[in-house]
Amino acid sequence: MTQTPTRSDFDQYMVPNYAPQKAIPVRGEGSRLWDQEGKEYIDFAGGIAVNSLGHCHPVLVDALKDQADKLWHLSNVYTNEPALKLARSLVERTFADKVYLCSSGGEANEAALKLARRWAHDNHGEHKHRIVSFYQSFHGRTFFTVSVGGQPKYSQGFGPVPGGIAHGEFNDLDSVRDLIDADTCAVMVEPMQGEGGILPAEPEFLQGLRDLCDQHDALLIFDEVQTGVGRTGSLYAYMEYGVTPDILTSAKSLGGGFPVGAMLTTDRVAPALGIGTHGSTYGGNALASAVALAAVEHIDTPEVLTGVKQRHDLFREHLEAINRQHGVFKEIRGMGLLIGAEMSEAYQGRAKDILPLAIEEGVMALVAGPNVLRMAPSLVIPEADIAEGMARLERAIARLVAAQ
């Protein structure tokens, strides 16, 4: 086909479950993008915390090209060298003893939940099946994960949701004490709620969950799909807190833009997923595994991880300066390069109104609900791009204020 696609083609040919911006990026390098018209953008969105090393980072491009000439896909009737190397690397860098590879964060969370129930069933019996999660959490779009997630809007209209799921209040340990009992098989939590508004967990809350799980012989699952692989300034956020889960899920930054997910667990728990209990056609794909291994090895270095924390401070300084001038934010929060700016009372529900203005000014950002402007840029975004992107964001916010 020689015809150049346009934004109207989305409306004509695509299922309308998304509402993308008008611009269509066609090329990226580092933290900058160019659209069909040649207009340049600075990327503070990072593919929603996916593009951990920006666009077309040479380390990832080289890994992909090298593997592309060797082997793409086998299925899990066979294993392959990149998958084995990736699994070993994740085990050696974390608490885990075993790894399950898949293609997305939703798949990783689905596997984690199935593993938890299967482990409880095999070790305690059918009664131990309840899962505790938290309001405003987000764990994926499969029917199981969207039901465990604490945002009913994502499961409404699809019929009866799976049973045995209860929700507590994030950062409220007392609410969990009222829910967890001998029938609970797992507690699932994000160390920092992403879609729920960029809310970091309090250290005492996560430690309390660990203690409650130990008391009731339940498994603690950390959903680190958005916080993992350097996003918080550590390889995984659990390392920042010093609280170790039984199961951890990873995706997004893990592949640096290539679809890949992983579930990590211990020798105590892993045997519950025996042969035939679960699977993924593309899980452990040689291409994805090669790229993910390159991403992990490049990110899990003092230079990159220290740089994430330094860049966090720069983002915060710029956002605070914008707020002193325009008064649009109530609070700026987050960890590492997952940052949220909650809108002030005068601008409630208007975070999304910033995005098209920002696009016009040449900067891409995100929201986390109606009241939080979210940024999840490349972990190695140059300081000059931060400064220029913030200047463009300030112009967008000035336009929002002027139109108020």
Automatic annotation (TrEMBL):
<dbReference type="Pfam" id="PF00202">
    <property type="entry name" value="Aminotran_3"/>
</dbReference>
<dbReference type="InterPro" id="IPR015422">
    <property type="entry name" value="PyrdxlP-dep_Trfase_small"/>
</dbReference>
<keyword id="KW-0032">Aminotransferase</keyword>
<dbReference type="GO" id="GO:0005737">
    <property type="term" value="C:cytoplasm"/>
</dbReference>
<keyword id="KW-0663">Pyridoxal phosphate</keyword>
<dbReference type="InterPro" id="IPR049704">
    <property type="entry name" value="Aminotrans_3_PPA_site"/>
</dbReference>
<dbReference type="InterPro" id="IPR005814">
    <property type="entry name" value="Aminotrans_3"/>
</dbReference>
<comment type="similarity">
    <text>Belongs to the class-III pyridoxal-phosphate-dependent aminotransferase family. ArgD subfamily.</text>
</comment>
<dbReference type="InterPro" id="IPR004636">
    <property type="entry name" value="AcOrn/SuccOrn_fam"/>
</dbReference>
<keyword id="KW-0808">Transferase</keyword>
<keyword id="KW-0055">Arginine biosynthesis</keyword>
<keyword id="KW-0028">Amino-acid biosynthesis</keyword>
<comment type="subunit">
    <text>Homodimer.</text>
</comment>
<dbReference type="GO" id="GO:0030170">
    <property type="term" value="F:pyridoxal phosphate binding"/>
</dbReference>
<feature type="binding site">
    <location>
        <position position="281"/>
    </location>
    <ligand>
        <name>pyridoxal 5'-phosphate</name>
    </ligand>
</feature>
<dbReference type="InterPro" id="IPR050103">
    <property type="entry name" value="Class-III_PLP-dep_AT"/>
</dbReference>
<dbReference type="InterPro" id="IPR017652">
    <property type="entry name" value="Ac/SucOrn_transaminase_bac"/>
</dbReference>
<feature type="binding site">
    <location>
        <position position="280"/>
    </location>
    <ligand>
        <name>N(2)-acetyl-L-ornithine</name>
    </ligand>
</feature>
<keyword id="KW-0963">Cytoplasm</keyword>
<protein>
    <recommendedName>
        <fullName>Acetylornithine aminotransferase</fullName>
        <ecNumber>2.6.1.11</ecNumber>
    </recommendedName>
</protein>
<dbReference type="GO" id="GO:0042802">
    <property type="term" value="F:identical protein binding"/>
</dbReference>
<dbReference type="InterPro" id="IPR015424">
    <property type="entry name" value="PyrdxlP-dep_Trfase"/>
</dbReference>
<feature type="binding site">
    <location>
        <position position="141"/>
    </location>
    <ligand>
        <name>N(2)-acetyl-L-ornithine</name>
    </ligand>
</feature>
<comment type="pathway">
    <text>Amino-acid biosynthesis; L-arginine biosynthesis; N(2)-acetyl-L-ornithine from L-glutamate: step 4/4.</text>
</comment>
<feature type="binding site">
    <location>
        <position position="138"/>
    </location>
    <ligand>
        <name>pyridoxal 5'-phosphate</name>
    </ligand>
</feature>
<dbReference type="InterPro" id="IPR015421">
    <property type="entry name" value="PyrdxlP-dep_Trfase_major"/>
</dbReference>
<feature type="modified residue" description="N6-(pyridoxal phosphate)lysine">
    <location>
        <position position="252"/>
    </location>
</feature>
<dbReference type="GO" id="GO:0006526">
    <property type="term" value="P:L-arginine biosynthetic process"/>
</dbReference>
<feature type="binding site">
    <location>
        <begin position="223"/>
        <end position="226"/>
    </location>
    <ligand>
        <name>pyridoxal 5'-phosphate</name>
    </ligand>
</feature>
<dbReference type="GO" id="GO:0003992">
    <property type="term" value="F:N2-acetyl-L-ornithine:2-oxoglutarate 5-aminotransferase activity"/>
</dbReference>
